[in-house]
Write a structure and sequence with these properties.
By secondary structure, the chain is mainly α. Helix content is 83%, strand content 0%. Helix 1 packs antiparallel against helix 8, helix 3 packs across helix 7 and helix 4 packs parallel to helix 11.
């Protein structure tokens, strides 16, 4: 990985952790998700026009079905993530969401596709399970893990399940249908906002109140979220995905640090160790995804 690709990945990880931190500080519901989606769609419009112009693959009905399915899953993901941030600590929900996504994706590959992990894959699965165990506070069950920790385990894992669902669908659309990743992403982004629009626009006073309360967070999240993804796309153009994907997971460690420093959350040693286990697990699963020599 050259220095520019490395810089792109690290910057992308910082952007990803930052927008999640701001989303936690806002702790909004559907109005917040809809409004930052509007900002994201407007910000991504130039990229959408360019990607549409450069697209060489016709958008069949199957492609549009994949786009619609991914947009729906992204909408559910955003709402579930915000629910988690309202009910638990950032340093619990964020690493769990980031780490359980790859775990569920591998489980789907085993159950649905018959793919069996190699040694690195099983090590990754074990590391991720250990990380979940530590971050959720399950190891302190004899001292009764707090209600917030249990809520974090539930919502973080549910967010990870959403991530796994749209990851599998997105991978199928790009690899099997041959869609442009950038075009697919920006179309999903716009359609996600359209899906949320009927419910969001039903209560205009709530939208106005959310804008007045959280407009700084709405604009920042709306811009940083697609930027984080685009930086990864540019990095993949310069370096192998097998290097880029594990490096992205630095965002978990960054997120735990920001949650401690800026949100004044208690950094339990078990949470830090659990996060490190989850990073190691994601790296091992990335190695598993590569063909054996």
């Amino acid at each position: 990985m050259d220095s520019i690709a490395l810089l792109l990945v690290i910057t992308g990880a910082l952007c990803h952790a930052a927008w999640n931190l701001l989303a936690k500080k806002a702790s909004g519901g559907l109005p917040f998700v809809f409004l930052f989606g509007v900002v994201s769609s407007v910000g991504a419009l130039p990229f959408a026009v360019w990607a549409w112009h450069e697209n060489q693959v016709p958008l069949t009905w199957l492609a549009w079905a994949a786009i619609a399915g991914s947009a729906l899953m992204h909408a559910v993901y955003s709402l579930v993530l915000q629910q988690g941030y309202r009910n638990s600590d950032f340093s619990v929900v964020y690493p769990l969401a980031r780490g359980t996504g790859p775990l569920f994706s591998v489980a789907a590959a085993i159950l649905l596709l018959g793919e069996m992990p190699n040694r690195a894959g099983w090590i990754g699965i074990l590391a991720l399970l250990t990380g979940i165990f530590l971050i959720s506070g399950a190891h302190r069950i004899h001292r009764a893990a707090t209600e917030r920790a249990r809520a974090g385990l539930f919502w973080g894992s549910l967010t990870g399940l959403c991530i796994a669902a749209y990851t599998v669908l997105d991978g199928w659309a790009i690899k099997v249908l041959g869609l442009s990743p950038l075009l697919f992403y920006v179309l999903c982004l716009g359609l996600r906002t359209v899906i949320l629009a009927p419910q969001a626009l039903r209560n205009l006073p709530a939208l106005h109140a959310e804008w007045l309360r959280s407009r700084r967070y709405i604009i920042a999240v709306g811009l940083l979220s697609p930027l984080a993804y685009l930086l990864v796309l540019f990095a993949v153009q310069r370096a192998p995905l097998s290097y880029v994907a594990p490096m992205r997971e630095l965002s978990m460690l960054i997120g735990v640090y920001l949650g401690t420093r800026l949100l004044r959350e208690t950094l339990l040693p078990s949470r830090l160790i659990g996060t490190l286990f989850m990073i190691a697990g994601v790296v091992a699963l990335a190695l598993f995804s590569q063909p054996s020599p």
